[in-house]
Write a structure and sequence with these properties.
The protein has about 425 residues and is an alpha+beta fold. About 35% of the residues lie in helices and about 30% in strands. The protein has an eight-stranded antiparallel beta sheet, with helices on both faces. It has a four-stranded parallel beta sheet with strand order 3-2-1-4, with no helix packed on it. A four-stranded antiparallel beta sheet has the order 5-8-6-7, with helices on one face. It comes from Paenibacillus plantarum.
Amino acid sequence: MRNPRKLMIEDSRIAIWYFNINQEQLWNTSQVFPSMTDKLQLELVKQQEQQQLFIAEPHDIVLMNYTLDYDYLQYLQSWGIQLPQIVMQFRSETLSKLQHDNSLLIPYIFSEESYIENGWIRELKILGGSPELVKSINNKFTTRRLAEEYGFNITKGYFCYNINELQSAYHKLCESGFRKCVIKIPFGSSGKGLRIIENTEGFNTFLKFIQRRSTTFELLIEGWYCDARCINGQLWVAENKVEVIAVTEQKIDLNGVYEGTNYTPDFHSLVIHQYSQELVRLGEILQERGYRGICGIDSIIDREGFIYPIIEINARLTQVTYLLPVVNRLINSYPYIHSMYRKFDKSYSLGFKEILSELTNLLEPDDRNKFLIYTFAKTETEGSKSMYRVYVLFYGKDYVKFQNMLVDFSNSR
C-alpha cells in the first residue's frame, strides 16, 4: 500500500487539490432511467471535499466551497492531521494565490467542463492526460468494449439498441441462470448509472418506462453475480511506470450504491497476485493510450472464485485515494480497517461536538478499537430539519469488538 501523493507530485512542489465530484453526473444525459435530483443530498455529497485534507501536505493548498466546522478542524488536528492552506474556491483572490511555477492542480476528475466553468484553471499545470480521454475511459460502455478487445474475463452481457434486443438479451440471461440483472447507461457513479432488475415483473415495468421514452437507444444489460465479492484496485499510471498501490474490498448495497470500503480484506495471496497482474496489464493499455494519473478499478470475484477484473474504470481519484495516507499510517498496527458512512436527519440542529459525542456513546471505542470521522457534512432544510452525512474510518485489533462497532454504526439513525 502506497501514499498516492508521493507518486503524483514531488514533496517540494505544491499540490492544489480541487474537488469537482459531480462531474460524472453532468455527463449523464441519458433519459432512459427515471431520475430526480435531490439538491440537499447533492450539497452533502459535495462536502466530501473535506477528504482532501487527509491527502494534502501542510504546504499544499486545498480548494473548498463549504466552510468547515471549527470544532471539526480542531478534532482533526488533535488526531494528528496537519492542515494545509484552505482557500475558498470562488473568492476573488483565488487566482493570485494559486499562480505558482512550482504548483500542480490535482482535480478529483480532469474534465473539459472544469476549464469552461473556471477560467483560472487554464493558468495552472494539471495532473492527467487529456480531458477527452478521461471522459472516454469513465464511460461504462467503453470499459466493456476495452475488456472484450484485450481478452479480459468479462461478465455475461449484451449491448442493446431497441426493445426487441433488450427483451431477447434479458431472456438469454435468465436462461443462463441469472436471477437478477443490471442495466447500465454510459455515465454515473455510486449506483446512478445503473438499474438493478430483481425479476421479470421489474424488467417489464422498466421496459414499459423506456418504451414511452424512445424506441431506439443504447443500453448494456449484464447478469448480476449474486454473492460476488467486490475487489477493487488503485492503479497509478505514469509515463514510464504502472503500479498497483492498493487492493481493497468495496461494500455495496442491493442497488449497487457504495456503502464503504474494507482496507484489510482477507483475499488469498494468489488472488491478489492474479488480480494485480491483470491490473498492471490494464494500466499498460491505458498508458499506451495516453492516460496519466490514478485509476480506481471496480472488479468482482464470483462465488466460484473467478475474477472479472474490469467492471468499471474510474479514471479519477476516489474516496480510497484520499484516505490511503491515513490507512498507510494505521495498517501496521491495526489488522482491521474499514470505512462506512451514514446519512440521517434531525428535527433540530447539532454541531460536530454533539455528533461526535453521540457516536462515542454508541460505539464505545477503547484503546484497541477506535474510529475517525473523515467527513462531517451538514445542511439545513427550509424548515427546522437538519440533514447529515457522516463518514467514519474504523480501525481496530479485536475482531469481535471491531465488527460490533460496524454493526452498531450501520444500524444507527
